[in-house]
Amino acid sequence: MYRLSGTSALRHLDRLGWNPVDHPDRRSGKMGEMSEIDGMGTERATCVLAPNPSAMTLDGTNTWIIGEPGADEVVVIDPGPKDGKHLSRVADIVTGQGRRVGLVLLTHGHPDHSAGAKKFAELAGPAVPVRAMDPRHRLGDEGLVEGDVVTTGGLELRVMETPGHSNDSLTFWIPADGAVLTGDTVLGYGTTVVEGKLGDYLSSLDRLRKFSEEAGAATILPGHGPKLDDPIAALDHYINHRRERLAQVEAAVKAGARTAREVVEVVYADVDKSLWPAAEWSVQSQLDYLNERGAL
Ligand SMILES: [Zn+2]
């Protein structure tokens, strides 16, 4: 019989996509405030934290202003939700730096990243395009695909397709800063929800790990939560977490569980039952993955 270690339900919430106890701001009760996240970044990237904290968005959505030092044109990635105050604040920060927005990019189409994008582009100036993989989220004709190199104000960004969290998830590589901007594929703490295929997500993580090692990546800039200054360790943690969960599901099936619900009853036994439907959904994608590979 498979048993979970530990008894605290909170400690197991990360199985469902988040873990509030991992983060010092949450332990000290500062959750949702303008913490160290707002204003963090690298030489070229600055985070503007959107005021939409929740279980799924952690402290809020990270909007990124990215520009070459001294350049008068910047890129804004993930303007965030349709929150007029936040969108104006991002635009004001860019203007305050004596710069203008040349381009808006989206890591993926989830509304907490994309809903404010078109409004922001209009606010930022005439004919500022929004580029995204999914045509529904674009403003203008240009999309984004694997291998695209985006150049704005002398800044170079490289586009990688990293499906899993969603089918349209992209990662942007900022070579000059050694920064990997991951959207929701890797978060600053906790783990992400896999809406697409688990196999795609695992391949994306493996690819990002290999890439980070080869390219000498110094920082992960996530879609939510604080930046991570050890990309390899963060990706190993993510990969191991997924493998452990798969092993738990596999063990539950071998012990007799026949449906996603039965697996949940074993693997999530000490998690609050109100979270079981979400857990069932996650387990189903793991069962699909194991079945496709003939592991069950
Ligand atoms: Zn998302």
Automatic annotation (TrEMBL):
GO molecular function, a single term: hydrolase activity
InterPro entries, A to Z: LACTB2_WH (IPR041516), Metallo-B-lactamas (IPR001279), RibonucZ/Hydroxyglut_hydro (IPR036866), Sec-metab_biosynth-thioest (IPR050662), WH-like_DNA-bd_sf (IPR036388)
Keyword set includes Transmembrane: no
Keyword tags: Hydrolase
Domain of life: Bacteria
Domain Metallo-beta-lactamase: 60-224
Keyword Hydrolase: yes
Signal peptide: none
CDD domains named in the record: metallo-hydrolase-like_MBL-fold
PANTHER family, per database record: ENDORIBONUCLEASE LACTB2 (PTHR23131:SF0)
Name recorded for this polypeptide: MBL fold metallo-hydrolase
Organism (species): Actinomadura rudentiformis
